[in-house]
Amino acid sequence: MPTTAFDLTGRLAVVTGASSGIGLAMAEGLAAAGADIIGVSGHLPDTGSEVARRVEGLGRRFTPLRADFADRAAVTALGGELAERRPDILVNNAGTIRRAPAIEHSDDFWDEVIAVNLSSQFVLSRAVGAGMVARGHGKIIFTASLLSFQGGVNVPGYTAAKSGVVGLVKALSNEWAGSGVNVNAIAPGYISTANTRALRDDAARSAAILERIPAGRWGEASDLAGAAVFLASSASDYVNGITLPVDGGWLGR
User: Fold this and answer.
1) Active-site entry in 110, 122, 142, 158
2) pLDDT by residue for the chain (253 residues), tens digit each?
3) Is 158 a catalytic residue?
4) Whole-angstrom Cα distance, residue 39 to residue 18?
5) How many Å from the N-terminal Cα to the C-terminal Cα in the chain?
6) What is the CB-side half-sphere exposure of residue 178 using CA atoms within 13 A?
């Protein structure tokens, strides 16, 4: 039973932001558990991508799609296309970050981050979730953040968006759990990806971060794969509306 509960064989998973970092690791993890993958990114080639190589290397099918998550019309069109493909799993992972003190944080920064990290994820969830509700099953997973719980520094738009993700997860779960659709989120800690390069390149900031992490290291993107498989599988059928931190113990410190 424990092994069967995590088996995703025969299921189709959509992973946004799949070309690198956390999205790539999640796509690979879901494929290793048996799922075929639709990867969506702003710049994903038709052939030869790293995510395609990894997914297909595991014997699963990979379909690449491209979308600008800051463009509402493009996201709406993507939602319609994905709904027609009837995925079993939607991983809302695509995101961006803009760093500047609040006084200098421009409207353009704010609008872009909210559009990509929050609004586009609602639009896709609405489109794909409608079919899941009608069919009576589905899994939707959002990528939240430690800044869903904390304020951060110099990232007001990102913090607002990621805090909104946690609220959206609860709202959708309240409406859809009774229809067999599980909506949850994963909150990564400080993960070694392109989004955190500025922090890792700042020796003092990096040292301060490491000092607070009980696990004693920056996370790797692969550390998120297990949580994604859990929330995508029947092992989490009675898990609804939660945000699961994968942070090396940061929030418990």
Assistant:
1) 158
2) 456 899 999 999 999 999 999 999 999 999 999 999 999 999 999 999 999 999 999 999 999 999 999 999 999 999 999 999 999 999 999 999 999 999 999 999 999 999 999 999 999 999 999 999 999 999 999 999 999 999 999 999 999 999 999 999 999 999 999 999 999 999 999 998 877 888 888 889 889 999 999 999 999 999 999 999 999 999 999 999 999 999 999 999 8
3) yes
4) 5
5) 34
6) 3
Question: Pick from 184, 178, 2: which is nearest to 89 by CA?
Answer: 184
- N residues, the chain: 253
> What is the residue whose two structure tokens read 């946004």?
16
Cα distance between residue 118 and residue 90, in whole Å: 15
User: Is the whole model's pTM more than 0.85, yes or no?
Assistant: yes
Token pair belonging to 106: 């421009």
Cα separations in angstroms, 211 against 146, 194, 198, 207, 250: 16, 21, 17, 6, 10
User: What are the angstrom distances between the C-alpha of 75 and each of 30, 144, 189, 252?
Assistant: 23, 19, 27, 36
